[in-house]
Design goal:
heterodimer, A: 2 domains, 4-stranded antiparallel beta sheet, 13 strands, B: 492 residues, Cytochrome Bc1 Complex, Chain C, Cytochrome Bc1 Complex, Chain D, domain 2, two-stranded antiparallel ribbon, elongated
């Protein structure tokens, strides 16, 4: 690119017929090698970027609700605040959520999520009417969470629960709204 | 026989025509032809050589650093309280995280090595001669920028070694006359190393220096093309006479092969010997022996020899002269003679300085090995790093997400106390339910466990230390105070 004209070219610079096939073979080989190497290197890059999709980065553990004896004599749903420990990638977050423990039937305790399956408002227990009544669109549920009337597509959602060493534990989850079946949001 | 070959030939002709048509279609619209011509047909006097590969390899490594760097930023958080956790998360949890981080870390060392090779080759070949002063100076600026990248990137993991090496590195800035103290505070974002230092280094490492680097790389390549390849040392740098060879294919092939070998080496190192992360920076550690990355060891060793009133000569004057010599060598060594054996002074000075660097680096390593207390501490630090690497990833407890602790205020007295707590604005400093804020200590827990008597006494008559921290004596009636104490004691 400097001003002076180059007088001659080195042998091999301009392709001669016999050299062309050998050279193009080598070029193809090198090009192939480069592509293979590039592809091999892009694998860890893609896996790195897709890590949250390939492995679980958010995780919900079991939360303590209280001693099971506390709930034995319940006559109405009892609201309890629980601490939910969640794994959010590199963080461990502890947040507070409300739940309802239902009066035990035949010795089994059910726990309801207060989130309305209609549009997600929090449903309070109405002591006088003995019903759950959602303040947003007046969806009404019975004491056991069964749908009575209103726009809700299904009954209130049960939360997975278990009893360990006399302690009631639950796994807090959110469920998809506006559909007739209970489907957890992962 | 000719008949048999006939259809095959016409087929070849057809495909050739189709390819040609396709190429022309794009060429007319994109100008591929002239771009390819510009990029690939650069004439090299004397032909392609392995000695010329370093520039392309540097460009390749820079691209690799950019890609791996962008990916690492997917998970990294530049703040003193999250940096180390997020890097630990990358290394210990994220798929391929350790590999990618190692590729990035080893890549920085590789860039320094290839930069030195590129510089040495250019210098020994006298390729800065013949109207190439700006080309050379832009290269020197690129060298400084790359060292800046290495320096700023080193701090980001916020482990012990990063923290202490950067503490020393930024302290050195305060030796600069007149503006030294200011410069140090500017780099750190204050007197102390802290979260602002991480922010500043991150912004420099990820936005500012790369932007300037890209501009200078473009300028460097442009100036190189403008001046033309210098060719071998026997070549006239202004009016080349040797027969030429185009950049494509031979030089391209050589450059590609070296780049592939490079990535193979880096990949193997990253896979078989991944870069380690040490324990989180602990500014209170008084035992830590900080050591910089290997390419800064010569400077580190050099600075040890300069203490006292003449320190400025060693710390500022000599390095400044050396840097000036390097930058202005095309103006000093102006003859067109390029063969190294005919340039004994230029080559001699270069070899002397380079040798000095190597010697300093080796002496630094030797000094550390000879001093038993340092050797012991360095070994201890290595153990700590290995210990940390063995531990599983520990997620960070996000304190802020913990909305006020669940306080079941069952006791009516405590419930009344909560009203007092809120109406007296205790929560303004001590937070809701006494969780504590920057302005006031946490009350829940240890403090709340004091006896009721002690608590009410403290509330009425805060200690001098409490008053210093803006704690006001609580001015409420005895009933309310009793309730407040009951409430405080209910905080767990």
């Amino acid at each position: 690119m400097s001003g002076a004209e180059k007088p001659t070219a080195i042998r091999g610079d301009v392709a001669t017929d016999e050299s062309v096939s050998r050279r193009s073979f080598l070029l193809v080989l090198l090009g192939f090698g480069t592509v293979v190497m590039g592809a091999a290197l892009s694998v860890p890059l893609i896996r790195f970027a897709l890590h949250p999709l390939l492995t679980k980065t958010t995780e919900i553990g079991w939360s303590d609700v209280g001693k099971i004896d506390e709930f034995a004599s319940l006559t109405a749903p009892a609201k309890r605040l629980i601490k939910v420990v969640q794994r959010d990638a590199w963080r461990r977050i502890i947040s507070e959520r409300a739940i309802y423990v239902l009066p035990p039937k035949n010795g089994t305790v059910r726990v309801l999520s207060p989130i309305c399956p209609h549009l997600g408002c929090s449903i309070p227990w109405n002591e006088t009417k003995q019903e759950f009544i959602c303040p947003c669109h007046m969806a009404v549920f019975a004491m056991d969470g069964a749908k009575i009337s209103g726009p809700a597509p299904r009954s209130m959602d049960d939360l997975e629960s278990k009893i360990e060493d006399g302690t009631l534990k639950i796994r807090y989850q959110y469920f998809r709204q506006l559909i007739p079946t209970k489907e957890p949001l992962s | 026989m000719p008949n048999a070959k006939e259809p095959e030939r016409s087929e070849q002709l057809q495909t050739a025509t189709f390819r040609q048509l396709l190429y022309t279609w794009f060429d007319v619209r994109l100008g591929v032809g002239s771009i390819l011509h510009e990029a690939l047909d650069e004439p090299i006097p004397g032909g392609a050589r392995w000695a010329y590969v370093f520039g392309s390899v540097l460009l390749f490594l820079f691209i690799s650093q950019t890609i791996t760097g962008i990916f690492l930023a997917l998970y990294y958080v530049p703040s003193a309280d999250h940096a180390h956790t997020t890097v630990a998360y990358i290394v210990k949890e994220v798929t391929g995280g350790s590999f990618l981080r190692s590729l990035h870390a080893y890549g920085s060392s590789a860039i320094v090595i290839v930069l030195l090779l590129h510089l040495t080759q250019t210098y020994l070949y006298g390729a800065y001669k013949g109207r190439r002063e700006l080309l050379w100076i832009s290269g020197c600026i690129l060298l400084a920028l790359m060292l800046g990248m290495a320096f700023t990137g080193y701090l980001l993991p916020w482990d012990q070694k990063a923290y202490f090496a950067t503490t020393v590195g930024t302290n050195m800035a305060s030796d600069v006359p007149f503006v030294g103290t200011w410069l140090k505070r500017f780099m750190r974002g204050g007197d102390e190393m802290g979260t602002l230092t991480v922010s500043r280094f991150f912004v420099a490492h990820v936005f500012i220096i790369p932007a300037v680097l890209i501009a200078f790389i473009a300028m460097h390549v442009y100036l190189f093309r403008k001046a033309g390849a210098a060719g071998p040392p026997s070549e006239d740098p202004v009016n080349p006479k040797l027969p030429t060879q185009r950049f494509y294919p031979r030089q391209v092939v050589m450059d590609t092969i070296v780049a592939l070998v490079m990535i193979l080496i880096l990949g193997s190192l990253a896979h078989f010997s991944p870069t380690e992360l040490g324990p989180q920076a602990n500014p209170a550690d008084t035992q830590y022996v900080p050591r910089p990355e290997w390419y800064y060891l010569p400077i580190f060793q050099w600075l040890k020899y300069w203490r006292g009133p003449y320190a400025i000569i060693g710390i500022i004057v000599i390095p400044a002269i050396t840097a000036a010599l390097l930058v202005f060598v095309p103006f000093i060594d102006r003859r067109l003679e390029r063969r190294p054996w005919r340039r004994p002074i230029a080559v001699g000075v270069f070899v002397l300085i380079l040798g000095g660097f190597v010697a300093m680096g080796l002496m630094s390593v030797h000094d550390d090995q000879r001093d038993p207390s340092i050797a012991k501490q360095v070994a201890k630090q290595r153990d700590e790093v290995e210990q940390f690497m063995r531990e599983p990833f520990e997620p960070e407890g996000a304190a802020t997400s913990l909305s006020a602790p669940v306080v079941a205020v069952v006791d009516p007295l405590a419930a009344a106390g909560k009203k007092v707590y809120d109406s007296e604005s205790c929560d303004a400093c001590h937070g809701e339910n006494g969780v504590g804020t920057n302005a006031g200590p946490k009350l829940a827990g240890a403090i709340a466990q004091k006896s009721a008597e002690e608590l009410s006494n403290l509330l009425r008559h805060p200690t001098a230390k409490m008053i210093e921290g803006e704690m006001k004596p609580v001015d409420v009636g005895d009933e309310d105070l009793k309730a407040l104490v009951a409430y405080l004691k209910s905080l767990k």
